[in-house]
Design brief:
By secondary structure, chain A is an all-alpha fold. In chain A, about 65% of the residues lie in helices and about 0% in strands. Chain A has one domain. Chain B has a domain of about 240 residues: Alkaline Phosphatase, subunit A (3-Layer(aba) Sandwich). Classes of the chains: A mainly alpha, B mainly alpha. Chain B: This is GPI ethanolamine phosphate transferase 3.
């Protein structure tokens, strides 16, 4: 049977859009049928985790505030020597202490209800417990670094300079990856269906997903002041985007982890 | 009935319209018969077994025909009402824009007074100079002693100041015209050279008015640049003629339309001024005819010769300054002026000047520095010119030092020639002319300055009297009256240096006052215009947001089919909606009802008040008309609340539209509009790609993501085509032309149209094939005709470049031009004449395949390939016709951008389809954003100087109405036009012949689409009005408003005249074959 059927008269009258076999309108209109039921991530209940959870936004803001003046002067140097390593360290510590490793936390129940590929490994991880958290954090950092070029490409598509300012944009992309995506890699690993839920904005809000949504919106809004002819140093590429990422991440994370926890878009 | 069976595809020759219809009818009859008898047998069998059924079938056939007829009629009537609604919308937009413009564009009252020779404004007695022989007569000098009997005025169009002074570089436009600078340095008494600053707008027509009347031009005149209108104010030529001087004119025929009948008919030689591609005819004509007049024996035939050369200007428009042709042209001018100076005698003054400059691409019209800085050179072998300071001996190195206003030429020339200064003059005498050879004739300078200033004062008094305004009293320090009194008080003291500068101060202050005075806006009209536009926008949004539910047909083909067969069997009467329920009909009726009281009220008000502005009735009519339409929309449950978006898509549409329009309040966001539009396009693609993750079927999901990514990548690719505006410098590099200082395409750019002709038809085919719609006329039209058209337009640009660059030497002149123009005409003929005919008569892009059914071999099965996209695939032929012609008119780089635009539009409809976004306004808004984005990618900016006037000569040899303006408009708004033509695709793509309510739906989509531009027009209008005193008004806000206004009207017209009309033709053609679904 060919991939695309010729349409007979009888079938054409019965179904709207049936003529286009490659794109079926009906199925996409009701995505609830087989929705992957992702549960929101809860923060570990240890006192240290609960403290760090609240301290992390302040520390991140501190990193930005501390590096801001040098960021404005020389974005590449400041990002590569100050903000990026500090943020990476902070995010890694935050993940190890506060976040459940991939496969633990809230996802278990959902996964039991509906087995998925990748479940095996996560179960194993869950058994092995916290010692592997360091390995997982390192792996997540590696994946974070690997997706950075894709974020870089997205930024270029949004209008970032194509042939110039390569290191500016790449470092900025690394920040977005580190803040927005790293915690999600830590809690979800590379589970395709979990990522489809996150990407389709069907995941429930929590600290990780809220942070990603916030960082994306922040980066988007960060572009707003760039065209203005105010001739300020802080309008230099990509300072405003970076500030937007930090601000959006912190805001999204706090809101997602508290008032909006568990809610969906 | 058995389930549908896949039928093997058979090669069926594309059937023509009639056979397709009969095939369909046969199939349909068969099906009807089957339904009726509930027997799955061949129809021959039916006839055999139940012979009395034949009558029944005949009867049904008749009923069916009657029903079809009624439906068709009802459809046509609904179409007419819908079109009526859009005519009304167009009228509202015209009234709103017109009203605002009438209050916004500066107006100046023209006074008809003329200066008289024997009435000096400085008074008859006394004066600074002792009485001279012949005072008060043209022979001796009316207001000042005459110094020259004759004048030769050479106007070199677009002669920028830096073309004439030494500049230390190797640019084609520098150091090619050294003669004037050299003479001014070598013989300062015989010649001087100074920057000559134009008052914007820098179009030739406006400049000639300023150069002859001495007043400031106002913007409203710029629209008449295509057809000049006679100058009625007092002017130099009128005064010359009044003094009995004979004026000869050679060159640019704009003079003839401004001053009809002023010139010596037998000696003058006017030449067509708009043939931009022709660099030489005008110049050679002037040179050929001017030298004989300089012969000793013929000097008695004339007093003033005006020669207006256009070669430099045309070289700028056609190639840009940085081109060997420009260098050649300037050298030719150098030689010409050199020769001419040799022929000038002692009684004659030679004046060489530019009327404006040119920007970095060779265009002009705006008020950037490069556009206003022209050059002025005067020469007389008698050596009467002087400098008041020794350092003035060398001409200024740049145009910002010691500039002369262009209006200053008027009093200078008038006093030199002994004629009165024209009444409306605001300029002052040029120092060098009156300073005497040693530069110390202060009394002469003071006298000239005083008489000019007195003329200015007289004019001011008349102007204020005519306007009914009071002048500022002399008691205000620094007011013109105060300055005048002070200057007059000095006259008796005899310190001529002080007197001279006091009168100069008075003139400067008055000029500044006049500039701000004539920036008087009519706030009342502006507010009325904004109100009409604003309420119009609101009504349109009402119409889009909620009206959709009002007359939405139940779109269930099965139900419809059952209903229809029942109607045919005569069981139930025709279910067609009564015409009174058509929304558009109600609205149009309301519009007319509402307009009447407004029109009467407005006219009555004008009559009773005696103000005479009856046209205010139009604004009133528009407002009351909008009010009644608004109320009738409210009647059908309209509330403001429905305007608030409820989905992320609605929000995106609203944010994209509003933020863009609000951004026009800032010059930065207006300047960087192209980057912002790319940002929105990418945002949309990004969000749809994420949204596609929600699609369950993996194949569909990947297709949806693929189209989103493609959409974004194509947008970014197109963004490589840039034409930077001055304000974007230095952060922008133009790529649209070969270099930033040229207006020709680079060699590699010529390959783009060829690539388009190779790739684009294949891409379109790929979009049609999944729905099996590459059938019927499509393969022939898209694969051959469309491709040929694209190839020929690619060929055109090669021919054009070969002509511009003289690639083939030894060809007879104009051979290549002829060839290229005929090629262009053939492409346009193919697109519009053949294309429209083909679109009108094309059968649907479907094929009918008949085969034996597999399950019951006795039964024939009819399959229609492309049934599911019957509407969309056929309608696609119409945008393709436009695409070919727009690609031809848009230059190679722009052609590439338009091809990408079309590809993006195809991806957009796929994205909308796979993400089920057809009910949201995001589709039309994205289409509008695409159109706006590619406006910039086809080498335009929202400034006057980026209008590619030379596109008028792509299909023509000379200016012809209305074709030349039409070609320029199609070049300028190519992207928006293409987007507008594609609006029905949003509804028709993947719509089967059973699609109901396509007309109403398309009208709503058009509403959202036009709404985007209407909001832009309205907001940019408000900002222009609000920021009317802003420094950047004429550079940024006014041009943006003008662009938005014109785009809105263009979009309205195309929506009405192409999109809606095309939809009608398409629906009729589909309905004729498959029966009326509407």
């Amino acid at each position: 049977m060919p991939l695309v059927d010729p349409i007979t008269m009888a079938s054409a009258v019965s179904k709207k859009g049936a003529a286009s076999q490659t794109v079926t309108v009906e199925s996409s209109a009701s995505p609830t049928a087989e929705t992957y039921n992702l549960l929101p991530v809860s923060i570990n209940q240890t006192p240290l985790a609960q403290t760090l959870r609240h301290a992390q936004p302040l520390l991140l803001s501190g990193v930005l505030a501390f590096g801001f003046s040098s960021l404005v002067k020389d974005p590449v140097a400041a990002m590569s020597s100050t903000t990026l390593p500090l943020t990476a360290a902070l995010q890694a510590v935050y993940a190890v202490i506060c976040l459940p490793v991939a496969g633990r936390g809230g996802n278990d129940t959902a996964k039991k209800a509906k087995p998925r590929p990748g479940e095996k490994t996560s179960k194993k991880r869950a058994k092995e417990g916290g010692n592997n958290a360091y390995v997982l954090a390192a792996l997540s950092l590696l994946i974070t670094a690997l997706v950075t070029p894709f974020i870089y490409a997205s930024m270029v598509l949004f209008g970032a300079p194509f042939l110039t300012h390569g290191s500016h944009t790449l470092l900025c992309a690394a920040h977005l990856s580190l803040l927005g995506l790293f915690p999600l890699f830590y809690v979800h690993g590379v589970d395709a269906s979990a990522w489809a839920a996150v990407g389709g904005f069907r995941a429930p809000l929590d600290e990780t997903f809220g942070g990603l949504a916030g960082a994306l919106v922040g980066a988007w809004l960060g572009a707003v002041p760039i065209p203005l002819d105010w001739d300020r140093d802080w309008q230099r590429w990509p300072v405003t985007i970076l500030v937007g990422i930090y601000g959006g991440y912190v805001l999204g994370k706090v809101i997602g982890g508290t008032t909006a926890w568990g809610k969906k878009f | 009935m058995p389930p549908p069976q896949p039928t093997p595809k058979k090669a069926v020759p594309a059937p023509d319209y009639k056979t397709l219809k009969s095939q369909w009818d046969a199939a349909k009859r068969k099906k009807d018969a089957e339904d009726a008898t509930k027997k799955a047998v061949k129809d021959q069998a039916v006839t055999a077994v139940e012979p009395n059924n034949t009558d029944e079938i005949k009867l049904r056939e008749l009923r069916r025909a009657a029903l079809e007829g009624r439906r068709k009629k009802a459809y046509q009537s609904r179409w007419a009402w819908t079109a009526g609604f859009w005519v009304w919308m167009l009228a509202i937009h015209l009234v709103g824009l017109g009203y605002f413009t009438s209050g916004f564009l500066l107006t100046r009252l023209q006074l008809d007074d003329k200066s008289l020779c024997d009435v000096s404004p400085a008074g008859q007695e006394g004066g600074i100079l002792p009485a001279w022989p012949g005072k008060g007569t043209p022979e001796g000098g009316c207001w000042h002693p005459k110094t020259f009997d004759k004048a030769v005025v050479v106007l070199i169009d677009a002669l920028r100041y830096d073309f004439t002074v030494p500049v230390d570089d190797n640019a084609e436009f520098h150091n090619r015209f050294p003669f004037m600078y050299e003479t001014a340095v070598r013989e300062p008494n015989k010649a001087f050279l100074r920057p000559f600053i134009a008052d914007p707008p820098t179009s030739t027509l406006q400049r000639l008015k300023g150069l002859t009347t001495g007043t400031l031009p106002t913007f409203i005149d710029v629209g008449s640049s295509f057809s000049g209108t006679a100058v009625e104010e007092d002017n130099l030529l009128g005064q010359l003629r009044g003094a009995g001087k004979r004026v000869v004119h050679l060159g640019d025929d704009t003079w003839e339309s401004l001053f009809p009948g002023y010139f010596e008919g037998n000696l003058s030689r006017p030449y067509d001024s708009f043939n931009v591609w022709d660099l030489h005819t005008v110049d050679e004509g002037v040179i050929e005819h001017i030298f004989p007049l300089m012969e000793e024996g013929r000097k008695g035939e004339w007093d003033v010769v005006i020669g207006h050369l256009l070669g430099v200007d045309h070289a700028g428009h056609r190639y840009g300054p940085e081109h060997p042709e420009m260098g050649r042209k300037l050298r030719q001018m150098d030689g010409f002026v050199r020769d001419l100076a040799g022929k000038i005698d002692e009684r004659t003054v030679l004046i060489v000047m530019g009327d404006h400059g040119m920007d970095s691409k060779g265009d002009h019209g705006g008020e950037s520095d490069d556009e206003v800085q022209a050059a002025l050179w005067m020469y007389s072998p008698r050596g009467g010119f002087g400098r008041t300071k020794p350092e003035f001996a060398v001409p200024p190195a740049t145009a910002v030092e010691r500039p002369v206003n262009q209006i200053d030429l008027v009093p200078t020339l008038a006093l030199m020639m002994g004629i009165p200064i024209p009444f409306n003059n605001l300029g002052r005498p040029i120092e060098e002319v009156f300073a005497g050879p040693r530069g110390n004739s202060w009394n002469n300078l003071a006298a000239a300055e005083r008489v000019a200033a007195a003329g200015v004062k007289r004019y001011q008094a008349s102007y204020f009297a005519a306007r009914g305004m009071a002048e500022e009293p002399a008691s205000t320090p620094g007011s013109p009256a105060d300055l005048w009194d002070k200057a007059e008080g000095m006259v008796s003291k005899g310190n001529w240096v002080a007197v001279y500068s006091a009168f100069a101060e008075y003139q400067r202050e008055t000029l500044a006052r006049c500039k701000s005075l004539w920036a008087q806006f009519n706030i009342k009209n502006m507010i009325l215009g904004i109100a009409v536009m604003g309420f119009g926008v609101l009504t349109l949004l009402f119409y889009v947001s909620k009206g959709a539910e009002y007359d939405e047909a139940v779109d269930d083909p099965e139900l419809d089919d059952a209903e229809k067969s029942l109607e045919i069997m005569g069981v139930i009467p025709d279910s067609e909606l009564p015409l009174e329920n058509v929304l558009e009909r109600k609205l149009v009726a309301a519009a007319f009802l509402g307009a009447v009281p407004g029109l009467i009220g407005g006219a009555l008000h004008a009559y009773l008040k005696g103000t005479g502005d009856y046209y205010r009735g139009a604004a009133m009519a528009a407002l009351t008309s909008i009010a009644t339409v608004g109320v009738s929309l409210y009647e059908i449950k309209e509330t403001l609340r429905t305007l608030v978006p409820s989905t992320i898509w609605g929000w995106m549409a609203a944010v994209f539209t509003l933020s863009q329009s609000i951004g026009f309040a800032s010059n930065s966001y207006t300047i960087w509009e192209d980057s912002i539009l790319l940002f929105f396009i990418t945002t949309f693609g990004f969000v749809t790609a994420l949204s596609a993750l929600r699609i369950q079927s993996l194949a569909d999901r990947y297709m949806a993501i693929y189209h989103s990514v493609l959409f974004v990548v194509l947008g970014r690719l197109a963004s490589a085509s840039k034409l930077c505006r001055e304000e974007q410098m230095p952060y922008c590099t133009s790529t649209y032309y070969a270099s930033s200082t040229s207006s020709t395409s680079a060699l590699w750019q010529l390959a783009i149209p060829f690539a388009v002709s190779l790739i684009l038809p294949t891409i379109i085919k790929a979009y049609l094939q999944p729905t099996r719609s590459y059938e019927g006329l499509a393969p022939a039209w898209i694969g051959y005709v469309f491709r040929t058209g694209l190839f020929m337009s690619a060929l055109y640009w090669v021919l054009d470049s070969a002509d511009n660059g003289n690639w083939i030497s030894g060809l007879p002149e104009k051979k290549l031009k002829n060839l290229s123009v005929y090629t262009a005409q053939m492409v346009l003929g193919l697109a519009f004449v053949a294309g429209t005919t083909a679109f009108m008569w094309a059968p649907p892009c479907v094929s009918i395949v008949t085969s034996a059914s597999k399950s019951t071999p006795t039964r024939a099965q009819v399959a229609i390939l492309g049934y599911g996209n019957a509407h969309g695939a056929r309608y696609l032929l119409l945008p393709l016709n436009f695409l070919v012609s727009l690609i031809l008119l848009s230059k190679p780089m722009g052609g590439g951008a338009l091809a990408i635009l079309f590809w993006q539009i195809l991806s957009l409809v796929e994205i909308l389809d796979s993400n089920s976004l057809s009910a949201t306004p995001i589709g039309p808004v994205m289409l509008a954003i695409l159109g706006s984005f590619h406006f910039f990618k086809t080498g335009h900016q929202a400034v006057l100087s980026t209008i590619q006037w030379d596109s008028a000569f792509i299909p023509l040899f000379s200016v012809r109405y209305p074709w030349s303006p039409l070609a320029v408009a199609m070049n300028t708004f190519a992207a928006q036009i293409l987007a507008t033509v594609c609006v029905p695709l949003l509804v028709l793509w993947k719509a089967s012949p059973k699609k109901k309510g396509a007309l109403a739906e398309t009208s709503k989509k058009l509403g959202a689409f036009v709404g985007f531009f209407a909001v832009e027009g309205w907001m940019s209008m408000m900002w222009a009005g609000h920021l009317r005193r802003h420094l950047m008004l004429y550079r940024v806000f006014m041009p943006r408003f003008a662009t938005a206004g014109v785009v809105l009207i263009v979009v309205d017209l195309v929506a009405l005249g192409v999109s809606l009309l095309g939809l009608r033709g398409n629906t009729v053609a589909i309905g004729e074959v498959f029966g009326w679904a509407e």
